[in-house]
Here is the input.
Amino acid sequence: MRYAMVLDTRLCVGCMNCVVACKTENSVPDGFCRDWITETVQGEFPNLRLEIRSERCNHCDNPPCVYSCPTGASHQRPGGFVAVAKEKCIGCKACMASCPYDARFVHPQGYVSKCTFCAHRVEKGLNPACVSVCPTHCMFFGDLDDPDSEVSRLLATRVHHTLLPMAGTKPHVFFLS
Amino acid sequence: MTEYFNYRNNPEIDPHLHLWGWEIPVYLYLGGLVAGLMILSGYHILRARWDERSRGHYVTAPLLSLALLSLGMLVLFLDLEHKLYVWRLYLTFQVTSPMSWGSWVLLCVYPALVASAMLTLSNALPRLTRLIPILERISRWMNNRESVVHAIGFANLGLGVVLGIYTGVLLSSMVARPLWNSALLGPLFLFSGLSTGAAAMHLLTHFRPPAERDNGAFTDAVISAMVHWIRPHDDKSDGSRKLARADNGFLTVELVIIALYLIGLGSSTAVHQSAAQVMVTGTWAIAFWSFIGGGVLLPMVLQFLQTQGRVRESSLLPAVLVLGGGLMLRFILVAAGQASGWAIASH
Here is the structure.
């Protein structure tokens, strides 16, 4: 089983509901966020193309953060979740320096924190908090190894991309465009 | 035209990464300096006869290394955000993490340095060995066994090389920072460490101890420990000249590696080219070229003139410039490397 998230950039309006839901669900401290909105505008006026994305840790298949962690605090869990065991984290920030997406931050309590794909909800059969609150239903979550899952079908039929594929990290967050 | 907006504003991450302040560059610098001192000491232990081994600045180098490495470890500890969990480093070995390798290497470096210091302890700290006679006996036992002396020499030489290279590999393994994505950072930091190590040895040859006074056993031992760290070299001019020559060799190799490093980045992807530009022509250009001019080229010329007898051999300037340059190199690479990134360059 390999969990993945698919986001339809044609439906996302950048309302930031996902950001607020994540902060509430995971008690993310003030001044920090585990997911965020980016916008890329390309072209020349009036021929412009706008892509709005809800971004987060990409739970990479080939995660540099896990490889650089000196204590094993950053690890991959079954299902492809990239997680941080806070009781093992020494706060050396090597994982943050090696993440091309800058998806991690130092929690005020000293350990490194980031998106968990809401593993605690997924284990109960629920969607991650961000996916469950999206008002435009632009976010999908499921198993890449199941060809009948919604995420597999979307990726099989729609043009999509990942962030910074040239970094070689094999992200598990896909953007439909 | 491409415009990119990011609504994230996480501390230490945005607008660009600035995780590591002064602590990491200082740690990398001290690690490199100690590596240089270890390699030079190890080489000296293997090459020198007993009577040569037990006098001069090489006597004090292991003690100086121990002090500098401990300072480096303290600085590294200060950088940790979850300090009380530091012991977690030593409950595991993560084969893919250079930081894990480094933490275990540092653990091996200490005994090698202590053993190296023990070889010459009676000359480095005579009052201490008189105070604790067993130290003198251990030192004599070690010196009487050539195999032990050789093992200590090889251990210092080998661990010095590993420590020096590790400080560079630590940065080069960070996939996300294009400026650091070069295997040449390992040898660059090794040779920079060797040049600063030779410069530190050079400085040691210049200082003379203050007048020693009889202040009672303990005070005497402490004062002895302090003044003997800066004990003068017996045949000063010859030692200085050799060190100046060695230092120029190390600086030449360092300069060649820097050139290859920049050529490597320049002939790589656009992301790597823009990372190199930040250092060579961008925000860090003044600091970088000041380092090349004042920390490498100028001391090279001065040391060359010293070996030719055209500049006073007692001049401390070249050694001070090399030591300052080594520190500057770490600060520039750590800061400019953090400012470089795939995301910044590709949007």
About this structure: The beta strands of chain B are 2-6. Chain B touches chain A through 49 residues (CB under 8 Å). The two ends of chain B are 10 Å apart (CA to CA). The longest strand of chain B covers residues 2-6.
